[in-house]
């Protein structure tokens, strides 16, 4: 919402500096997005009278003029009469004209803030021109560049041009969002009222701004009939006809007013509709009466408010033809649609240079309907911005009466019909009933200690009616405030007008009962610690992925929630597991020169097969990890397949991992659809499912060839993904220290290729446990696995450390123990001790 | 359909595919199937053509699966802790490891709020229209909804509305208020912060991400007022930055708070004198906040006559970017080690 300081001053005194005012608006009305000091632009622009105007001797279109600036401009060459010579090419330059003169040394206002163009005295085709006479466009006051601006109101040569049209002004732009519930603040009048309120001044609306203005004197030359078929959606529809309208450019003050607020000037009538919209927030529309009548049956112009007929199309003012949505509010004649009410007028009844007679309309439309229509057709107009905040239907007559008077003035028009006012608003509460609050209610919510009188003054300043009854206040909102409904609404007004930054600060009191930390965050923090300490880098990737990525890793797009309004195909699907997102980051990091790294992410996954009883998608926390090394790298720690490195990392965050691993190739196809997606990228022969009982809770492994190729993964690449519920950083397990020395012995077992390491290790542990002397603690650690060539038996070497807690063990005892265990293993598994 | 093709021939073609014979699609046997089309009556041709195509697809799938298998590295013993003829795997040097800067900062922020007596709970990444809008006092078709460029799914909830990628962590307000409602009766306030990942349908640039993190806070109790809101946020920020700060509010509009504010602090990097971090203004706008709207309390079964409260929400990225001087918000989700390892 743009306002200008001078426009505000038409309605209220402002005695603050611009900086103070902007600060005050920011803290008590809404964020100021931009302040533009217009005065800067017009510094040096001088009112001058054209004293003489002769043809240029050397150029057809140019004129050589002398202008009278009252002798005020310094350092400029003057003739004996004290006048200054200026060359001007405008067709309208003539003797006696009052013009805006840009003397040498001044800057063309249009160029200020862009590439400043500073004028000088220079020859134009052999004749010296001292600066120039400016057009509207050069003055940054509109598009008109056909001639120079003709000053059309009293002014003296030598006067600052800015003074004539109130250009020593500031344009202040306040963020619209703050006014979402303040339809009145989409008008300068409303903002002026608030500025009075926050600066502690009593505001008085102009006399004409009232729900029931005086009757407009009228003849009845141009008949108009209105039917409202949509009283629910169009609570008020007021219109009047005017005849003998002289359409022409608006007076300069009006053009300037509009230009400051970024509106284009069209002609006097359209400009006035825009002027009153900008002042009051009430959008207005002007129709060509004769065009409306021609499109109506019979001699009378007819306006009908209705929904569109099936298949009905309309050509709009923006030149586009659309088929409005079935529930749109149409303005039609009895024959055909001529506009979309509250959104945009139609091209067929637009006023143009031949227009003689007009219909002026001030109506109120349902804010929700307007918004739906606007969104459905992508039509965003000033009218939509205002109507979709819910304008008060109680202001149409006031605004209509005022614009009619101005059209009479500026376009010499006559009122040609009675005012027609279809008022469906009666009996509905456009302004809510009075709100009664106690001072305690307000002070408890603000932390303030305001008295009833203070509160009354704050709100009567902005024209509420307030009655005090002991410690209760009864607030009656003025007719333009459709937003005051609850007591909290009144609290907000009091707090804001008083100034929130003046409220005393006080921390809430709390008990000393400790707060339980959130388990999920704590767990994530612990996992993050464990993995980053182990050299891995925590990564965050998007929750949305490209359908291609799902395809590349063999996941099913059908299982994925899909965005209907994705920014790009890159972000179209909710991810089904985290691993693919991490895999996508490997190639670029290798290219960036990283030859040995691990990435992990703590994130969420969703699947369409997973919704709760209320129909809401279930959400699963997951931990994913990938490790990769460049084939050319020599620096990586550890040798062998990447699987074992991924597994080594997984040991850090999954308790008793070795007990939970099942070869993925031997695992039955996963019936849970979302879990199956997690397994999809992993190569079954080189991966293990992590199970909890019969449920798969994770997977560790290397990736399928197709995945490796599609994502340009290095040969050495593995990873794991696990439900967060199954992850747990390794906990501390303490063994009491023994006073006696331990005995260490190694054992190597020649293992047939069909037997797994786990079988051997488990059998060994069990055999040792069964035979171990009482009072001993035994640990079994892997030393190495050796194999000559594929399919040969493997030699598995393990180190056994035995310690007794109450005496010294002999080597012999341990040897016996291992001999016994080896014998058991040979019997059970066909494993030979080497 | 496939019955239209000679079953024996089809089986032999499939068997060849299963054995990895990639020439099967070019074989005369397979091609002969196309030649037969001409011999068929016109009304059968379409169906026959479909059957042949179906067979072709089946063969292609089989071949692809075979290729996958053939190229796969040999199976390994996944129960072992190390590979054959290899040493035990080791970690990457610990000094290379890092926590993500956003998560690290979030931990710091949470720690302060825990100390201030707040619970913490995470917000979801996929939610419904009710929690995104309705429970927060956004009427249907209200223009306030325009300010949230939400991503929506093609799938719909039980009311036929699309699911929503939450555009704010306020989606949790209703749930948290309900969860801790009983505490109010015991005289304990509801105090909770809600971090989470949120989404806005915005084009990416150095300052805008479609995916970012927010931290929501809620405090409800008896006699909770606007001065407490400002004091609480000020206290948090002073603790976070470790220095005295000035704060100010700007009125704002959110449907779920009344009154609503934007909250700004004096720039902690230049002590309000003006620097590049605060764009020379001396102030940093950090978050939105306000007193919880009575309708939101009512939606959660809390009596707004008896209890009042405040809520706020702000982005985490901003804090981290200012703290380290990070120039581009897109680095956070880039997965670049050049970025991540700087936080080792």
Summary, kept brief:
Chain A is an alpha+beta fold and 834 residues long.
> What is the domain tally of chain B?
2
Judging from the principal axes of the Cα atoms, what is the shape of chain A?
A: elongated
CATH architecture tag of the largest domain in chain A: 2-Layer Sandwich
Tell me the greatest interface: A-B, 133 and 116 residues
The major pleated sheet of chain A works out as: 7 strands, mixed
Number of helices of chain B: 11
SSE sequence of chain B, one letter per element: HHHHEHEEHHEEHEEEHEHH
Strand % of chain A is 15-25%
- CATH H-level homologous superfamily name of the largest domain in chain B: Bira Bifunctional Protein, Domain 2
Give a quick account of the main beta sheet of chain B: strands, pairing sense, barrel closure: 7 strands, mixed
Describe the structure.
The complex is a heterodimer of chains A (834) and B (344). In chain A, helix 7 runs antiparallel to helix 11 (396-411). Chain A contains 24 helices and 38 strands. Chain A is of the alpha+beta class. Chain A has a seven-stranded mixed sheet with strand order 26-29-30-34-33-32-31, with helices on both faces. Chain A folds into six domains: 2-26 and 175-198, no CATH class; 40-164, OB fold (Dihydrolipoamide Acetyltransferase, E2P), CATH 2.40.50.140; 224-423, Phenylalanyl-tRNA Synthetase, Chain B, domain 3 (3-Layer(bba) Sandwich), CATH 3.50.40; 435-502, Phenylalanyl-tRNA Synthetase, Chain B, domain 1 (2-Layer Sandwich); 519-726, Bira Bifunctional Protein, Domain 2 (BirA Bifunctional Protein, domain 2), CATH 3.30.930.10; 743-833, Alpha-Beta Plaits. The mean pLDDT of chain A is 93. With 344 residues, chain B is α+β, with helices and mostly antiparallel strands. Chain B is 33% helix and 20% strand. Chain B is built from eleven helices and nine strands. Chain B has helices spanning 7-18, 28-35, 42-71, 101-115, 129-132, 173-179, 181-185, 226-241, 294-299, 317-324, 337-340; strands at 119-120, 151-156, 162-165, 190-199, 211-221, 247-254, 257-266, 283-292, 308-315. In chain B, helix 1 (7-18) packs parallel to helix 3 (42-71). The radius of gyration of chain B is 31 Å and the shape is elongated. The interface between A and B is large, with 133 and 116 residues.
């Amino acid at each position: 919402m743009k306002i200008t300081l001078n426009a505000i001053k038409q309605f209220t005194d402002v005695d603050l500096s611009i900086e103070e005012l902007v600060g005050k608006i920011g803290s008590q009305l809404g964020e100021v997005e931009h302040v533009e000091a217009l005065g800067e632009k017009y510094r040096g622009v001088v009112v001058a009278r054209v004293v003489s105007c002769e043809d240029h001797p050397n150029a057809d279109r140019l004129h050589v003029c002398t202008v009278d600036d009252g002798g005020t401009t310094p350092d400029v060459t003057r003739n004996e009469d004290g006048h200054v010579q200026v060359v001007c090419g405008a067709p309208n330059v003539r003797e006696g004209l009052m013009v805006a003169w840009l003397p040498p040394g001044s800057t063309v206002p249009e160029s200020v803030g862009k590439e400043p163009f500073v004028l000088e005295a220079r020859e134009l085709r052999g004749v010296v021109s001292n600066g120039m006479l400016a057009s509207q466009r050069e003055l940054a006051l509109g598009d008109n560049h056909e001639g120079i601006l003709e000053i059309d109101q009293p002014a003296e040569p030598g006067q600052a041009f800015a003074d004539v049209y109130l250009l020593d002004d500031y344009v202040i732009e306040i963020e619209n969002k703050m006014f979402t519930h303040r339809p009145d603040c989409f008008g300068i009048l409303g903002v002026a009222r608030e500025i009075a309120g926050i600066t502690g001044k009593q505001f008085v609306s102009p006399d004409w701004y009232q729900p029931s203005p005086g009757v407009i004197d009228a003849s009845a030359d141009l008949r108009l009939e209105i039917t409202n078929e949509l009283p629910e959606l169009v609570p008020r529809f007021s219109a009047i006809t005017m005849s003998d309208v002289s359409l022409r450019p608006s007076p300069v003050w009006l053009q300037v007013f509009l230009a400051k607020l970024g509106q284009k000037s069209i002609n006097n009538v359209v400009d006035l509709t825009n002027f009153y919209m900008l002042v009051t927030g009430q959008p207005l529309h002007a129709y060509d009466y004769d065009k409306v009548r021609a499109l109506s049956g019979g001699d009378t112009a007819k306006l009908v408010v209705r929904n569109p007929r099936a298949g009905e199309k309309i050509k709009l003012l923006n030149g586009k033809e659309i088929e409005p949505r079935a529930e749109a509010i149409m303005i039609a004649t009895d024959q055909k649609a001529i506009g979309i009410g509250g959104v945009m007028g139609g091209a067929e009844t637009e006023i143009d240079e031949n227009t003689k007679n007009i219909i002026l309309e001030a109506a109120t439309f349902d804010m929700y309907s307007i918004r739906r229509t606007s969104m459905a057709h992508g039509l965003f107009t000033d009218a939509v911005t205002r109507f979709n905040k819910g304008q008060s239907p109680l202001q149409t007559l006031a605004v209509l009466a005022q614009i009619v008077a101005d059209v009479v003035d500026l376009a010499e028009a006559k009122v040609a019909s009675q005012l027609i006012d279809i008022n469906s608003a009666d009996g509905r509460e456009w302004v809510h009933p009075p709100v009664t609050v106690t001072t305690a209610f307000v002070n408890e919510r603000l932390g303030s200690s305001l008295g009833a009188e203070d509160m009354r003054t704050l709100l009567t300043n902005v024209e509420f009616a307030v009655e005090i009854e002991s410690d209760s206040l009864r607030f009656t909102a003025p007719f333009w405030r459709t937003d005051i409904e609850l007591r909290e609404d009144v609290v907000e007004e009091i707090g804001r007008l008083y100034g929130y930054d003046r409220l005393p600060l006080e921390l809430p009191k709390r008990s000393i009962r400790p707060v339980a930390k959130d388990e999920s965050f704590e767990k994530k923090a612990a996992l993050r610690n464990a993995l980053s300490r182990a050299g891995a880098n925590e990564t965050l990737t998007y929750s949305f992925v490209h359908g291609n990525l799902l395809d590349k890793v063999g996941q099913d797009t059908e299982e994925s929630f899909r965005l209907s309004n994705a920014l790009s195909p890159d972000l179209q699907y909710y991810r089904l597991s985290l691993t693919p997102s991490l895999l996508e980051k490997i190639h670029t990091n290798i290219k960036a020169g990283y030859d040995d790294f691990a990435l992990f992410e703590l994130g969420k996954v969703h699947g369409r097969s997973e919704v709760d009883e209320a129909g809401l998608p279930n959400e699963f926390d997951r931990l994913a990890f990938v490790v990769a090394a460049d084939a050319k790298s020599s620096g990586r720690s550890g040798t062998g397949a990447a699987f074992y490195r991924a597994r080594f990392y997984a040991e850090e965050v999954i308790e008793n991992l070795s007990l939970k691993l099942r070869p993925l190739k031997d695992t039955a196809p996963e019936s849970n659809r979302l879990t199956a997606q997690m397994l999809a990228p992993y190569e079954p022969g080189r991966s293990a499912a992590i199970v909890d009982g019969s449920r798969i809770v994770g997977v560790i492994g290397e990736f399928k060839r197709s995945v490796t190729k599609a994502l340009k993964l290095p040969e050495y690449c593995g990873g794991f993904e696990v439900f967060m519920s199954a992850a747990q950083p390794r906990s501390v397990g303490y063994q009491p220290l023994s006073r006696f020395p331990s005995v260490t012995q190694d054992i190597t077992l020649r293992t047939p290729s069909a037997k797994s390491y786990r079988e051997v290790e488990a059998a060994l542990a069990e055999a040792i446990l069964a035979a171990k002397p009482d009072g001993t603690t035994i640990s079994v650690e892997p030393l190495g696995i050796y194999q000559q060539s594929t399919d040969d038996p493997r030699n598995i070497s393990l180190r056994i450390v035995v310690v007794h807690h109450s005496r010294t063990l002999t080597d012999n005892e341990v040897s016996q123990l291992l001999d016994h265990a080896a014998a058991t293993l040979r019997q059970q598994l066909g494993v030979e001790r080497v | 359909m496939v019955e239209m093709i000679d079953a024996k021939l089809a089986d032999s073609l499939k068997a060849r595919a299963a054995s990895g014979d990639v020439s099967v699609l070019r074989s005369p046997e397979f091609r002969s199937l196309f030649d037969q089309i001409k011999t068929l009556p016109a009304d059968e041709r379409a169906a026959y053509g479909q059957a042949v195509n179906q067979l072709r697809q089946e063969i292609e799938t089989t071949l692809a699966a075979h290729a996958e298998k053939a190229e796969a590295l040999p199976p390994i013993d996944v129960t072992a802790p190390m590979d054959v003829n290899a040493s035990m795997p080791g970690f990457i040097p610990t000094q290379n490891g890092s926590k993500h800067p956003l998560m690290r900062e979030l931990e710091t922020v949470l720690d302060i709020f825990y100390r201030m007596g707040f619970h913490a709970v995470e917000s979801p990444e996929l939610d419904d229209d009710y929690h995104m809008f309705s429970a927060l006092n956004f009427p249907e078709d209200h223009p306030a909804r325009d300010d949230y460029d939400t991503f929506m799914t093609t799938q719909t909830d039980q009311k036929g509305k699309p699911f929503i990628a939450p555009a704010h962590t306020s989606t949790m307000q209703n749930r948290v208020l309900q969860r801790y409602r009983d505490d109010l009766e015991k005289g304990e306030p509801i105090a909770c912060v809600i971090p989470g990942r949120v989404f806005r349908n915005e084009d990416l640039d150095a300052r805008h991400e479609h995916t970012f993190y927010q931290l929501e806070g809620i405090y409800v109790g008896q006699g909770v007022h606007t001065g407490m809101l400002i004091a609480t946020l000020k206290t948090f920020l002073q603790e976070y930055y470790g220095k005295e700060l000035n704060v100010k509010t700007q009125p704002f509009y959110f449907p779920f708070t009344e009154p609503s504010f934007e909250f700004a602090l004096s720039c902690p990097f230049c002590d309000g004198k003006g620097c590049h971090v605060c764009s020379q203004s001396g102030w940093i706008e950090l978050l939105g906040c306000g007193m919880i709207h009575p309708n939101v309390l009512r939606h959660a079964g809390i009596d707004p006559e008896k209890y009042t409260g405040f809520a706020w929400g702000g982005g985490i990225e901003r804090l981290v970017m200012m703290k380290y001087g990070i120039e581009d918000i897109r680095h956070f989700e880039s997965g670049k080690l050049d970025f991540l390892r700087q936080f080792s």
